[in-house]
Design a protein that fits this description.
single chain; 233 residues; alpha+beta; 6-stranded antiparallel beta sheet; 3-stranded antiparallel beta sheet; 8 helices
Length: 233
């Protein structure tokens, strides 16, 4: 561990900066100086070796506390039951059934699925696009989709979107994927967690820890699911 790491670890042991300074004051210092305040000043000014300034101490203590809080929240989110929008629904279409089968894994972070949809929008225009399923689950209520009240369609804020009538094309990173156009022959998505590449080219393999599933659906012209499994150590 480097010095910065040791400092970050040490800040959590102390309630205040003065306690941190006191930890570097020895009984011999107090004997000769006769003043704890003076001993602290000598430590703060570097006469006892490298120490954090008050500002650095507060910053690193806050960062360490935030990291610990995030760790606790992550554990709590993993341990509590996941509420599924598909629960209790009678699903007849293959596409909705496939989404329901993947819902829990995408909500819990075990899997990140990319949905390709090609169909006509409400204006009768043919559109297609790639949707980050896990991201949409976090930002939208999927109950209307599973209950048949709404139809899931790609939009301009999704990973990729193309309107074949207007030729409007957009691409955006999501919470799980970056969009890569480096390869002139295909569109690639880079998973932000494990850095692995998902290839959506139908003529190529989807990549490591990924699976491509073509579905027959009564709701859409063309639907493909790309499932990327996240390995946990």
């Amino acid at each position: 561990m480097d010095a910065a790491g040791r400092f970050s670890d040490s800040t959590t042991q102390f309630k205040a900066y003065e306690d941190y300074l006191d930890s570097k004051v020895t009984p011999m210092d107090l004997f000769y100086l006769k003043s704890r305040e003076l001993a602290r000043k000598l430590v703060e000014h570097g006469h006892k070796g490298t120490v954090l300034s008050r500002e650095e101490f507060e910053e690193r203590k806050a960062a360490a506390q935030a990291a610990e809080t995030a760790k606790i929240n992550a554990f709590y989110n993993r341990s509590r039951p996941v509420t599924l929008a598909s629960a209790g629904k009678e699903l007849k279409d293959n596409f909705l059934k496939a989404l329901a089968e993947r819902e829990e894994a995408n909500r819990s972070g075990k899997m990140t699925s990319v949905i390709f949809i090609r169909d006509h929008n409400t204006l009768g225009q043919e559109v297609s696009g790639y949707i980050d399923y896990a991201h949409r689950l976090k930002t939208q209520d999927f109950e209307p989709y599973f209950s048949g009240k709404k139809r899931l369609m790609p939009g301009r804020s999704d990973l990729c979107y193309y309107n074949w009538k207007t030729q409007v094309s957009t691409s955006n990173p999501s919470s799980n994927f970056e969009v890569i156009y480096d390869d002139p022959n295909s569109l690639l998505f880079k998973n932000k967690r494990d850095k692995k590449i998902l290839n959506v080219d139908p003529l190529c393999g989807p990549g490591e820890d990924s699976r491509r599933t073509v579905l027959q659906s009564d709701l859409y012209i063309h639907v493909v699911l790309y499932d990327h499994n996240i390995r946990t150590v």
